[in-house]
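Treating backbone geometry as a discrete language has practical consequences that deserve illustration. Part of our work consisted of pairing the sequence of a single chain with a tokenised description of its backbone. We regard such an encoding as a compact summary of how the chain folds. The amino acid sequence and the backbone structure tokens for this protein are reproduced below.
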Amino acid sequence: MTKKTINNDVLLANIIKGIEEVKGNDIDILDLREIDNSACDYFIICNGNSNTQVNAIVNSIQKTVSKAIKDKPWHVEGSDNAEWVLMDYVNIVVHVFQKHIREYYNIE
């Protein structure tokens, strides 16, 4: 079974749309394609103001991507406490933080 190839640009646009629909803040897109042996092509980083908003952002991304291009994340981690949720779309990894957690880890 082969995973269908999804255009990174289309996936990226739909992830951003999902974040914006629930007012996710401070969206950064880190292009990792020039880095040797990087785990993915892009990191998308954003934050919400509460665990409720972080979960809303994650749900909005999943719904928007699923509806537009019938894709779902390979793995989602961190939804339980919703301080830092990682969504792995294989070529694109999305990090949704609560603001204070993002500032603490400063992964950019």
